[in-house]
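Thread: Newbie trying to understand structure tokens

Hi all, I'm a second-year student working on a class project, and my supervisor (Dr. K.) asked me to get a predicted structure for one chain before our next meeting. I've only ever worked with sequences, so writing a 3D structure as a token string is new to me. If someone could post the tokens and maybe explain what I'm looking at, I'd be very grateful. Here's the chain:
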Amino acid sequence: MELAVVIPTLNSSSNLPLLLESLLRQSDREFAVVVADDPLSKDDTESVVRAYADRLAVRYIMAEETGISAARNRGILAIDSDIDCFVDSDCVADENWIKRTRECWGNLEDNSAGLRGKVLPKTTGFWTELLCNGVYVSEIHRGGGDNISYRRKALLDVGLFDPMLTLNEDGDLAGRVRKEGYRIEYDDKIVVYHDYGFTIERFFKREVKFGRGFYMLWEKTKDPGTIAPVLFGFSAFLFILISFLSGTLFLLFSLIALPTAAILYYRRYIRYFLRRKSVAYVPVLLALYLLKNICNTVGFLIQLTRSLQKECNPSCTVPSTNAARAVNKADCGKRSHELADLHRVIEHFSS
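---
Reply by user tm_fold:
Sure, no problem. This is what the structure looks like when written as tokens:
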């Protein structure tokens, strides 16, 4: 069974050496590595890769288009393999990462197309524990691209990563894989360590970005399930707002109803924490998840306004008479300013 590791990069020369060093320490050395660099990279990633070429079966290639999907696709097509393993450039692989991946694939049925591993933080602490084992649980989010492998045949069957998606591309691929009738398995002994480095600002910005990704995925699939976090976040925000604007009775009702709704919506994560006997984390987890989904809503609206702005100008070229063109131009300008103002307001609250 031939295994290949595909690493997408974008100005990653500072992080990449740690990952390549971890690949040098693998207990199973029968694998090849492809580093697929984004055309917008301006650093010396290529030099870093070439410095490892005499110790590791690694090659550097430049993607033809920008974006993480294009880089991953370029890496997949650049090498012949049975299994393609994906890891982010700021990760570090456990020494048995390849060995365990190979062992698991040897025991999987043909209808299993993906294999998700466990992601642990590089750092420790309360907030890191809460994020990695509460908000970003790799056992539940099985499509994450920072530690996952796929059968090459399945990737080719579903059409690889969608290069039009710059966010949520891994979730989109996982969805298409499942839609074809394949399974994505999970093994907690396939481990990589990721740099989650928690700060409130970083958390909010990450979730706003994910919200933009939810819009891109919804725009592509029109599947309401893809925006469930956004809908819940929007509903929670309105509920909280109405509670503060209304009387005491409604506020008391909301103090009961909102936690109940959150418990029902996040029940998978709560069960996960209870299995780990981390009961003390649950209240903080619920509050963090509400904030997370509200940030997702903000990101969704940002991407929505950007999409509407892009669609505005082409619609202004239809009229043929001078008078009609003048009216249409003024109307379009007004709409563009309104959208720009809305976008600035949303950006302000998300920054």
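A couple of things are worth pointing out once you decode it. The CA atoms of residues 65 and 303 lie 21 Å apart. Residues 221-350 form one domain. Feel free to ask follow-ups in this thread.
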